[in-house]
């Protein structure tokens, strides 16, 4: 039998969960089936098969029955597709239009709808409006769902999958109650961490030894419905990261914490993290599984079981981990160098080892002598600690004047608008990338790389926006300076810069690349002069703007006698003036 002679049709039926809840009988699967069968009988069409996506949203086309239908069409099993109306095909305006007006005609498939009178063999003048109205329905439904969820969160109702150790109350689906099967496991985890000092790895090992079912596997076996593919991801063993996640969660104190992630768009399943300040937190909404004392004790013990490499003499004990970063690429600097003739300090450097090839201007290698950086930070911090009350008042006044300057405010406003505009552009770009991926224009690996870069940029932009909003509020600026110097008054003078002291006062330190004299492209000998920027960003107050110049004495940082190291501060940026004491 030739499919180009007879009208062989596939019926496609779809109903979303939202439409089910709305009890839309006209859109029900049985109603769609009846209409299509009757239409085929009246027009002499042979109905070959039907494909049903029951409970699937029209927001995207990654639906199992629809994809199976496309495969059958490629095999030539039918030459026609029929749906009740265009909304059954989908509610995404662009993709629905693509399949109805491009994909099906290009593959010799006639597509028609019964209620909308859409037919690829006719002129469909109203089709763009129908596609648009279907998407309006999708967006309006999404908005209503978000409003309902927001209202529930504000009232402390738990509108998400219950966490391990809890279940939904049988009398109120929005409340959590302890799960008789898993709550004792959570309490055991906290007891081992808080009262026995066990590490997350040991707790996971003990749970595995006792045959305790891990959270995801428990959901697959006893609680939730999973697809075969989803169920296959569930491991039979506990992982230490799962234990740590449980120990860090405040839901076990009886608090509801929701909204920690969001979808990049209503048409995508991809989720991105939400800043902690924007989480929906409601206190004391359900019975706690652990006491506050046990929880806090477990937090203090977290990580104590990890191996402390600082106790080993052969490991350089850097205090700048996660604080000193490359000013060019933003990645943390790592300890590097050699031990020549037993001299460890002399040849100890912090270096950027991140060589990115996927950016226009990859990092070319930033590094600084460790002892030099310690001396720079210690001296700058001591200058702040030793400031008089008058000096502090002048510093605060200068910061307030800077924030209140008309030109400065205008510049900050322009920066803020640019950052917000770029953030909106990124959201649109991410949505388009996923659409392009679905249509085969970009592969999965490229999609992941591009989305990852855009999400990193998005996080940076959000931080910038928050900072710019903060800098336009004089009261907030003054309060931040008061907090910093109230903390600083507990210290008089720092003789030795330690990790604890650094974390107390410093947020991050940006190290710039070496700037060589004009006409020099690389270091050729160990006494060659150079300049290098060091920007220190303090907690609460950020980068301190001061005008000063000073020099470190020769050999002050443990350098060779022939090596001179100087430090100058210009507009808040410290610049090391010195020479290499070995081949760079």
Automatic annotation (TrEMBL):
Q: Which superkingdom, per the lineage?
A: Bacteria
Q: Which SMART domains is this protein grouped with?
A: Resolvase
Q: Which residues form the Recombinase domain?
A: 163-308
Q: Which Pfam families match?
A: DUF4368 (PF14287), Recombinase (PF07508), Resolvase (PF00239)
State the PROSITE patterns in the record.
RECOMBINASE_DNA_BIND
Query: SUPFAM superfamilies from the entry?
Result: Resolvase-like
The protein, known as: Recombinase family protein
